[in-house]
Every structure is written in C-alpha cells, then in structure tokens.
C-alpha cells in the first residue's frame, strides 16, 4: 500500500511510484507508435476512400467504460472485503484477549493464548502470500502446540484448532463455566470466518472471462482509436489518443491489480504492517514489550 | 472454473478456452455475413434514398450497455453469493468440528460426525448439479444413518436432520450440557442457511423477461448495426461491426453463464474441487488420511 | 414465475409468454402509428422549417436509460429480497423442526408443531396475495389453536403467537430447559423477521413519484422519437422507432411488474409452488406423506 | 406516502398529486420563459457569430445524469433504510410481546409492557418529526413510569430504559430466569438499534456539497439548454427544453424529498399510519380492542 | 458538517461556505485563463490546420464521468460507514448502560461505568483526529483506571480492556451471573467492532492509484477542453468550459474530502458534536447533569 496523505494537488499530477504507469507504459508506447503511423499514413489512407469515423468509437468507448466500471466495482469490492476481514481479525483478537483477561487469572496461560493469536495472524499472512511461515511459527507458537502446528499442511487452521483445544482445557479444568466458554468460543467462530473469507478471496478470482473480454476490447479499442481520430485531429492524434488510452488502460490495469488484494504490488494490502500492528496491540494489552512499528519505505510503501 | 493466474498480458489476447468465444462464435459469424452483405448492397442501398445513421444506434447501444451492465451486476451477484455460501460451508464445518473436538472426547463419535459433514458437502453438490450422489453417500455416511439418508428424497437435508439427531443423543447421554449443545446447534442452523441459500439460487433464476429483453435487443442491435455503419466505413464495416458485436454478445453470454453458478461451464464454480478441499481439510483436522488434492486439467479447468 | 431453462438462443427470440410484450403491445402499436404519421407528414413537416434533430434525443435517451437502470435496480432489489425472505422461511422452518425433533420425543406434539409451521407458510401467502386462507387454516392448524387463529384479523401473526405459546408450554412442562427454549425461540424471532419483511415489501411501494416520472418521460420520449428520426431514416423510421421504444417500454414495464413480487403476473414469485415445496419437505422430515409436487403448467408457468 | 395501486397506464400520465410537479413548477416556468426568449432572440443571436452547439451540452447532460443517478441512489438508500428500521420496529415489538406472553402469566404486567411498546413507537415518531408527543405519552405510558418519561429530554430513550427496568424487576421477582431475561433483553437491544438508526438518518444529511453541486449544475444546465437547442429546433425549442428540464429537475427534486424520509411531503414515510398499524397489531395480540385503521385521504395520501 | 436544512432553492445557488468552491477556485481560474487563451489564439490556431473536435472529448468526458461516479460511490460508502459506526457507538453505549442499570444496583459503580463509556467516545475521537486526548481522559476516567489508560499508547482500546476488567469484577463479586455477564460482554464486543471499524477507515485509504488516475484525467481533460470547444463556441468558450470544469472538479474534490470522513473540513463528520451528544444522553440516563448541547457556529458548521 502506498501512503501519501496530504500532498498538494499539483505535485500529484507527476507521481510515479504507486501509480499504475509502470505496468501500462509498454502498451501506451505501442499506442503512441500506432498514432504516429496513423498520422504518417493519413494521406495514403484518405485516398483509399474508407475512413473510420469517431461515432462507432464513441459508442464502443462508452460501452467499454460502463463495463469497466462494473469490473472496477467487482475488484474494489474484493479489496474492501479483504480489508474488512483483516479488520475483523484485529477486532476479534482484541475481543478474545479482553474476554480471556477478564475471566481467567493465570498470567502464563493468558500469555500463551495471546502468542497463539499473534501466530494466527502471521500464519494467515504467509498462507495468503504463499511464503514460508515456519520462522514466525517457531518464534510464536507455545512449545506444547508447536509440533502439530508446524507439521500440519494447514498451519493456520490447526492453530485455531489448538486454541479450541486450549479453551476446552480451561473449561474442563473448571476455570470457565459453559456459558463463559460459549461466549469465547463464538469469537473463535469469527476467527474461522476471517480465515475462510480470506481463503475464498485468494482462491476464487473474478470469472476469467470478464478479465479476458475487457482485456481484449480495451486493447483493440486503444489500437484502432488513432485511425478514427486522425482524420479530424491530424498532428494532435498522438496526444489525444495516448490520453484516452491512458484512462482506459490504467483503470483496467488497476482493476486487475486489486483483484488479488493479498499480492505485493503497490496498491495491495500491507499484510506485513497489519500483522505487525496486531502484534504491537496484543502485546500492549498484556503489558509485554512488542516489536517496533513498521514505517513506510522511501517510496511511501508499506508491504 | 478456469485457473490461469500469472499470464503475460499479450498472450491473454489469444486465449480460447475459458473465454465465451465458443458460445457466441455462430452469432459472430452471422454478424460477419450481415456486414459483408451490407458492404455488397451498399450501392443499391444508397440509391434507395433511405439510410440508417449512426446516431440512433449510438443512443440504443449506450442504453443497451447500461441495461447489460445491470444484468451483469445481477448475474455476478448470484455467482458471488453462491461462492460465499460454499465458503460459509467450509467455515461452518471447520467450526463445528473444532467445537465437537474441544468438548467431546470419544474419537469414534467425532469421526462419525466428521464423516457426516463431508457427506453433507458432496450431497449438496450432487443436489445442485442434479447428479446421482448415492456412491458418495455410501462411501461416507455412517452405517446407522445410511438407510434413512439414502431413501430420502432430500438426502442433504436428511443428513442435517441426522446431525441434529446425533447432537441430541450426545446431550441426552450427558456428554454435552444444554449450553454447549446450543452453541453447536447454532452452527447447524448456519449449515441449514447454506443449503437453503444454494437451493434458492439454483431454483429461482433472474426473472425470465430480463433475459428475453436483453437477448432480443442485443441480437437485433448487432444485426442492424452493419447497415448503420456501412455508409461511413465501407470496407472496414465487417471489422468494426464484429468488434462491437463481440463486446455486446460476449458480455450477454457470460451473464447468462454466471446466472447459474452451479453448472459445469468453464466459468462456473468448481464444486468438485471445493468438496475435495473440504474433505482434505476435515480429514486433516482429525488426523486421518484424506484424498488427493484435485488439480486443474490440461485446459486449466477445475470442475 | 416462468421456468424455461435450456432453450436454444435462436428460439428464445420468439418467446411470447413470460415476456412483457402483452403488456406493452398497445403502446408499441401507438408508437408504430406515430412513426407512420411521421413518415407521411415528412414533406409537409420539412417545409415548416423546424426539425427535431437526434442530438437532444440522444442526450435525453441516455439520461432516461440511466434513470431506468436505477429504477430497475430498485425493483429487482425488492424482488430479490422477497425471494430471500421466502428462502429464509424454508430455512428457519427446517431448523425449527430439526431443533424440536432433536430435543423433544413426543411424536404427536412434534407433528402439531410441524402443522403450524406449514400453516404459517400458506397463511403468509394468502395474506400477501389478499386471498382467503381459511380453507388452508382449517386443513392444517391443530384443533386447540384453530379458533383463535381463524378469528384473528392477523392469522399469520397469531400463528406465530400460538407457536410461542406451544413452546412456552413445553418449557413449563419441563420438557425444555430455558437454554434450549431460548435456542428455539431465536428461530421464532427469525420467522417474525420474515413475516415483517414480506409485509413491508407488500405495503411500501417504491415512492410513487419515481414511477410517475419515468412513466411520463419514457412515454413522451417514445412518442416524440419518430419525429426526430424521420428526417434521416425515412421509410426505416417505424422499424428503428419501434425497436428503441420496445427497449425502453419493456424495461419500464418489467420494473413495474417486479416492484410487487407477490403478485401473480408471469415474472412474480411462485408463492403456491414455494408453499407446496415447504409442505413436502416438512412432511418428509417427520416421515409423513406430503402432497404432490406442483409442476409448471403448459406455458411453463408456476404460480 | 401516496397509495395508488392499480391505475391504468394512460391516466397515470396526468396525475398531479404525489408527483413532484408542484415543487418544480416555478423552475419549469422559468425554463419556458428562457426558451421563448431564445426563440425570439434567435435572429439577433445568429448575427453575433457565436452559437452554443448541442455537443458540449450532451456531454454535460450525460455527466449530470450519471451524478444524479448517484445522488438518487444515496437518497433512496436512506429512504429504504428508514423503512426497514420501522419494519424492524414492528417485528421486534411483536417478538418482544410474544416472548413475554410465552413466559410470563400476569396479564396486567403484560399489558403494561405492551402499552410501553406502543408508546415507544409513537414517541419515536414525534421525535423524528419534531412534534409534541406528550398527549400520546399520557395516553399510553403506565402511571408508574409516566413522570420520568414525560420529564426526560429524550422520552423515547427513557421509555427503553423503563422497559429495561421493568424487565429487571421481573427477573429480580424470580419470574424470569437469567437465560430468559437475556433472550428478551437481546430484543431490547434491537429496539435500541432502531431508535439509533432513525436518529442517525434524521440528523446526518447527505453531505451538503453534493446537494449544492447538483442543484447548481442542474439549474444552470436547464437555463442554458434553450440557447443550445434553438439553432436546430426553432419553434420546437420550448417543448423539448421543458421536457428535458422536467426530467432533470423532477429527479433532483425527488432526491431531495427522499433525503429526509421522516418529513411529511407526499413521498415520505407515513409514520402516523405505521404507528397506528403497530398499535392495532399489538392490541390484537393481547386481545384488547385497538384503534381504527387509518385510511388514505381524498388525495390517496397517508401521513 | 454543514447544517443548513430548509433553505429556498434560489438562495442555495449562491452558498459559498460548505461548498467545495474554495478548494477548486484556483483550478477553475486556471481553466478560465486557458479558455481566454484559446479564444485569443483561435485565428492563428485555425490556420494551423489542426483542430480538436468535440467528439473525442465527449467520449472521454462520459468515460471520466462514469469512473468519477464509481469513485464517488466508494468515498460516500466510507463516509456512510463511518457515520454508521458512530451511530452504533451511541446505540451500544445506551444498551450497555441500560443493561447495567437493569441488573446492578450500586449507583457509584454504574456511574463509574458510564464515565468510562463517555471517555471511550472522546478518546476515540482524539485517536481518529490525531489530537491530544489527555484532558478528556483526566476529566472522565475513574481514578482507579486513569493511570493505565493515560500511559497506554492505545488509550481507547485500553479503556475497553478496563471495562472488561470492571465487568469481570462484578461477576467475581457475584453481582452478575455468567449469563448476564455474557449478555453485557457481547455489547463490549460491539464497541470493539466500532473502534476497529473506525481505525480501518482512518488507516486504509481508497487505493492511491484511483485517486491519481482520476486526478490526472480530470485535470488534463479540463485543461484541453477549451481548445475543443473554441471552434464552435467562440466567445462563449470561457462560460461553457468553466461550467463543465466546475462539474467535474467539484465532484472530484468532494470525493477526496469524503474519503477521510474523520477530518475537519466542512463536509466531514462532526465528531465533537457526536461525542457531546453521547455525553448528554448518557448523563441523562443516570440522572446526572450533562454538558451544554453544541450548536452550529456562524457558518452553520458543526465540528
């Protein structure tokens, strides 16, 4: 995620990092080349007696804009839902720790539980980004659960199972009545919702045909556009054509970037910073020293 | 579902499988034929003194694009809801198994319950795809419930009833207090929500008149389009006309495909893979060997 | 509701029943007459020195399409919510019966309760369609509650009250602990949600002014359209004008039809079939013979 | 709210009451005057060598239509939410009374509680419409709570507090176990949600700048429109200009009317009728005579 | 927030404060300068043989309007959600106080709890606006919790922890059964939801690339527009160009303002007034004198 809060409107026009320009630069250059070709061929082209007029391109451009608006909505909804799930993760973990602190008194047990909560967040991050999470597991998971979590093919879900186990133990030991147990267990259900929701977003893309149809129509539209513009605009064709192409290509490209909000491109969610924030807050709640807060790097980038 | 994660943008332009091209190819060909007829008849057509201009077609095209955007939204919302329900299925089954494991201790009973959970997923798949699920039921449902499930006209709902029965038995045997029973029963209610939600999507299409109106207007629009384009575009009519028709026909066709997300076309939900995933995860949670993970076939296709 | 699942795209173009054509045929004919008048008067009209151009009609048409898209969204959201409420009805009734079966053992009591559940669905249908439901009440409601239900001005809500009464009785008789009672009572609350939600949709239309504004602008737009098209299109005016009018009028007409999803036009919800389905499923759950399943009539129509 | 269910489409074109015509008539007349001025000045205006063309007005009109669509969505969402909150009010009150009737037996206590429920609805109505509710409070609130409710600056919230008090009393008197108490208390929380939700809608309008921007652009657009239309349309300018202005002004005006759904204009919610309905239904549930049902007045108007 | 309820439509046209005019005035002036340059250079520009036509600008303008509509939706959704969270805060705090009052009897304890609720609201405000909240904490937090709240880097969350602590104490002292404790604890979970939700909105902006793309395209579009309009409009170019630019720039500027609803610009949420309202209501509920109600300042502004 790019963090760039209070910039002057004028300087924003020239921001490079965090825009989608790097991704579409090549296609924009192709469009520029097409425009120059269109300008050069104009005379020969007019003798041919055929001409592309702007009218069908207006119709097509507006139709594509409407469909692109739909796809942006769909991608952004995935991004928003992903962020809400990570928000719910923090909320539920705070609630769980508050509940446990308010009814139990054994400090060591509470700390073990909070370690498992923190491990859950990091492990979910590794699962969503397909990275190796064993270092974080070893650092955080209490010894008595480490073996089964580390050996499981689904360590995040196994952590949840261990928390259920830990909770059942407290109940069997008589430290929790059934009613209190149920109240806490309901929040474990919510953690399960978060995990399942993130998995769903990560594993089920927007139907591939949407991506294909828009990818193709946007590309073909931008490629043919210079030939429709050149009879009226002559030397101004490259300027206008590249401008219109920029509008369409950049939104198509951003929609694709946001479709997988757990990736590591500049507009994706900063999962590392979110996990770091969870760890800081949970440590503070049990009055233990937590890690340093992550700061954006030189490009205002949080990962 | 087509799985095709990190392809280069250029090669995407030529993907065949998973696009809706196979479905609309015939209609696109018809449009091409119409365009060629329009080009051939142009001279005779101009002598007639009547001409279709682009203006009313622009208006109509944009109006149709707006309505098509609405229909795409409606179809995509069904697809998304269906996927969310299957996500909730996995989440709830994991929660149920965690709850049961954390408060009961009889391994055999727990395994029977997990078998019923897995059977519920497969049985729901068969119900939604109208296939014969008896093999899966025989493979999974514990012996004491098999007869009544197999003989029921609604085996999926009957499985839920059996789970309620199993749970009531644990309560009557004194292994669960009423409070713990209620906590687990609440998750059975959520399974019932999932089943009812999927049934609703499968049985109630988008009102048929929407499909009809858009089907007709899109088709008639694409058929008349060449005659409106030909006075300006001459030999370029087929190119532009097929391009515009592709945009409209492909989105209309995809909207129809997504309307029934439980079908087996390339953009529908991969119910087999989802059930397989549920089975693997639930088996792992009780430390039993599960099935192999399904992989996409040669066409990147998961069923 | 029209049921017409896997028809070939070509034959769909000519479907009559279930389309909104019957409703708008008269207005389309008026439009045809207007178009013919416009063609006939063209010469005289051009001498007048005034002409309607297409440009303001394009602007107006697109604006109306945008507002019509908004109204379609609103109507379709009502339709969808109505269907979800009836889905929640089935889900909650199944859950209630499962809960009752799993904690009670008296077969006769359970059957009485299931009768009341079925009666609730039928009674709600009669209330929403303003039909006389006394036959269904007499057929289904257990004798001890029949009198008060039949005499109540709100029989559906009274049935809910009787179920609450029945449940309270089981609790007072010691067959249900308070905790179990609360779990079942929560589902009675959901039945109350369903009833209240359906009532709300039936009693509060979309603000009447929306209907009026779009009704008027669509009608006036379609009436003036031929005069704007005729200078360019000459003899083709009737074709294009009727086509554009069909697009706008049919969507406006369908939006009005869906606004009251409990009516009995072809695109409304098949409440009879839904009630029949509920009765079949609940009967099967307590192993009693249920009614026959309703099938679509000759016009693929479910009521 | 205007109630006008099954009118013929033709007569709807001429409905006056309940349309927004009365609100925009003055602005429409201004537009008519502008159009006539444009027609008169045409000759002089053409000699000036400048002309407003339709093209930039098409662009502007469509852009405004898109933004107006957004604002209509926002206003209608507020209207819908307000109606849902009042629906939830009835649902929750029915559920509360059912719960209380099913577990308590003292008729007098139950009746007092139902009186407070009815008073809650009327008091909320007075609060939302800024009217004096003391008469209704005196008529409905039981004597032992009347003083503190009447003297409170927030009588509606105070009533909720009294219901909590009443419920706590039943619990302390041993008539309700803690579990039953909690089940009923959860529904008091829902009443609190309804009250808070309505307050929020009433106190937080759509950001004022949206209203301003659309108000201004719609008005300026309609004022300049005749000058853009007159070069093509001549004597027909007033007709087309007033028609287009009607479309934009009426939707802008309706959006503003719906923004505050608790007002008393013809398209707002009929709070009196809703309260009256609640009173009838709750009275019927405890077999007491209720008030007469309110009927629409001569203009089909429910307040 | 600007409060300006029942103004006449005519005077609204000239409102200055609360509109976004101050923010975009400079850019509008630039546009005016560009328009004048375009008018002056027209002759020389026409000799050049190139001309920008309106057609590609219509296409571009409508596409930008569609994307701007999307961005407005996203920003407004954040604003609405933020307001709903603050609504839920008040609702939950009222419910908590009602629950506590209905089951506990120690006035001093209840007052301490209500102080913590009020402190929670103020502390959340300070956290969201990055202001120093220590004065409010000292004024409100009971002495026994003040030290740990004041020293915590997350005072708002720490307050929640203290409330959990307070509640656990009541339970351990036998004043609350486990069931009652759970019912109140569930509302503490909702407070946690509110805090987490507000944090999420404050810390995760709409992906920066959306802001950039629209910022750039809107700016470039408005800058080039005069050159496209001038060949047709001549001396009227500045008027029309500034009008169109106003429409686009003001909506883009407002979308940016609403993106951070916790700021202190005129269209943001009045957090001070909301906290003040909460304090008044909670004080009234325990019959204590509360603060004065905040009134809008001279510019109808609530902070």
Automatic annotation (TrEMBL), chains A, B, C, D, E:
The chain crosses the membrane at residues 24-45, 51-70. GO terms for molecular function: chloride channel activity. It is found in: Cell membrane. Keywords: Cell membrane, Ion transport, Membrane, Transmembrane, Transmembrane helix, Transport. GO terms for cellular component: plasma membrane. It is a multi-pass membrane protein. This is Ibestrophin.
């Amino acid at each position: 995620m790019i963090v760039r809060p209070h910039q002057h409107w004028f300087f924003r026009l020239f921001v490079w990092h965090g825009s989608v320009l790097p991704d579409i630069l090549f296609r924009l250059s192709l469009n520029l080349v097409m425009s120059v070709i269109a300008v050069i061929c104009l005379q020969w082209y007019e003798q041919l007696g055929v001409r592309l007029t702007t009218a069908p391109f207006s119709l097509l451009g507006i139709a594509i804009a409407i469909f692109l608006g739909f796809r942006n909505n769909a991608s952004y909804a995935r991004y928003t839902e992903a962020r809400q799930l990570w928000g719910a993760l923090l909320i539920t973990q705070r609630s769980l720790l508050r509940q446990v602190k308010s009814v139990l008194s054994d400090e060591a047990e509470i700390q073990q539980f909070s370690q498992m909560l923190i491990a859950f967040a990091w492990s979910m991050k590794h699962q969503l980004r397909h990275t190796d999470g064993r270092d974080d597991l070893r650092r955080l998971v209490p010894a008595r659960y480490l073996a089964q979590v580390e050996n499981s093919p689904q360590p995040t879900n196994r952590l949840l199972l261990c928390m259920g186990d830990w909770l059942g133990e407290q109940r069997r030991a008589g430290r929790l009545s059934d009613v209190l147990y149920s109240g806490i267990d309901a929040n474990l259900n919510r953690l399960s919702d978060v995990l399942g929701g993130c998995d769903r977003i990560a594993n089920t893309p927007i139907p591939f045909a949407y991506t294909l149809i828009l990818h193709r129509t946007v590309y073909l539209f931008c490629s043919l556009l210079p030939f429709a513009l050149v009879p009226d605009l002559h030397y101004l064709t490259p300027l206008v054509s590249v401008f219109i192409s920029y509008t369409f290509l950049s939104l198509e490209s951003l929609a694709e970037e946001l479709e997988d909000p757990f990736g590591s491109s500049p507009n994706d969610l900063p999962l590392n910073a979110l996990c770091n924030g969870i760890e800081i807050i949970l440590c503070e709640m049990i009055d233990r020293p937590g890690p340093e807060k992550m700061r954006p790097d030189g490009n205002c980038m949080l990962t």
